[in-house]
Design goal:
2 copies of one chain form a homodimer. By secondary structure, chain A is mainly alpha-helical. Chain A contains 5 helices and no strands. The radius of gyration of chain A is 19 Å and the shape is extended. Chain A binds a DNA duplex (30 and 30 nucleotides) through helix 3.
Chain lengths: 114, 114
DNA sequence: CTAAATTGATTTATAAGTAACTCATTAAAC
DNA sequence: GTTTAATGAGTTACTTATAAATCAATTTAG
C-alpha cells in the first residue's frame, strides 16, 4: 500500500529537468510544430505535453524521451540515428558483466567515502 | 476521462532508456551502493528502483534523474556541479525569448518537409 | 484590422502507477 | 563451506496521474 508520496528533488535534478524541457520547447517551436501535432505524434495528450514543457518531474520518462526525439532533440549527444546509442549500450553491458552482481557492505572499513 | 493508454515508443526512445538505465545500474554497483540504500536516498521504493534499472518507460522522470545524480551519473555531460546546467538553461531561455511564441501553419507551402 | 488557430489553465472521471510486503534465490564476505 | 544480506519477482490496497473537455486569452497570418 503506497503511502502519500511527497518527493523532493535535488537542485541538480531540477536543473536538468528545466534544461531538458527548455530544449524540447525550443526545438518544437524552431521546427514549427504545434503542441497538438507533437502530442498526437507522441501518443500523448496536449496537457501532458504542457507538463513536459514545464519540467514537471512526474511525467513518464518514456513520454518525455519520445517527444524529444519527435522534435529532433538528440539525447546523449548521440545523433538521432541511434547507432551510437547502440554502441554505448553494448559497452555498458560489457562493463556490467565485469562488475559484481551484488553489492555488499564489508564488515571492516573499505574506506568508501570521498 | 483517460482512455486506456497504450503507448508505443520509437526505437530511439527505447535505446536511450536502455542506455540510461544501464549507466545508472553500472554506476550504482561501481560505487558499491545497494539498491535499498539508493532507493531510500532518492525517496523511492526499491521496486521503483528495480523498474528504473530495467528501463521501464513509465517511471517518473524526476525519480530517474534523482537516482542518476545519487549514483554520480552526470546528465547532459554537465558535471554534477550543475553550474554548466545553469548556463545552458540561461542560454535556452534567451533563445526561447527570440522565437515566436506560437506556431501557426501558413496557408501556402512553406515547404516545411524534408 | 480581423479572423482563427494556438496556447494556458482548470476540472473530472477513470486508468494506472506506487509503496509496502512477501518469499525464493543467490552471491558475496568471512 | 557457511552465513546472511542483496536482489528479483510478484501481489495488492491505495494514491496518483492521465486524457478529455472547456473556456479565455493572445498571437499570428492574411
Amino acid at each position: 500500500m503506497p503511502k502519500s508520496i511527497v518527493r523532493t528533488y535535488s537542485k541538480y535534478t531540477k536543473e536538468a529537468l528545466t534544461l531538458l524541457s527548455g530544449l524540447i520547447r525550443s526545438a518544437r517551436i524552431e521546427r514549427k510544430l504545434s503542441a497538438q501535432e507533437v502530442a498526437e505524434r507522441a501518443g500523448i495528450s496536449r496537457s501532458m505535453l504542457q507538463r513536459i514543457e514545464k519540467a514537471d518531474p512526474k511525467c513518464e520518462i518514456g513520454a518525455v524521451f519520445e517527444v524529444a526525439s519527435i522534435v529532433g532533440l538528440a539525447l546523449f549527444d548521440a545523433e538521432l540515428s541511434s547507432s551510437k546509442l547502440a554502441n554505448n549500450i553494448k559497452r555498458t553491458e560489457e562493463k556490467l558483466a565485469l562488475l559484481p552482481q551484488r553489492v555488499r557492505k564489508s564488515k571492516k572499513a573499505v574506506d568508501d567515502d570521498f
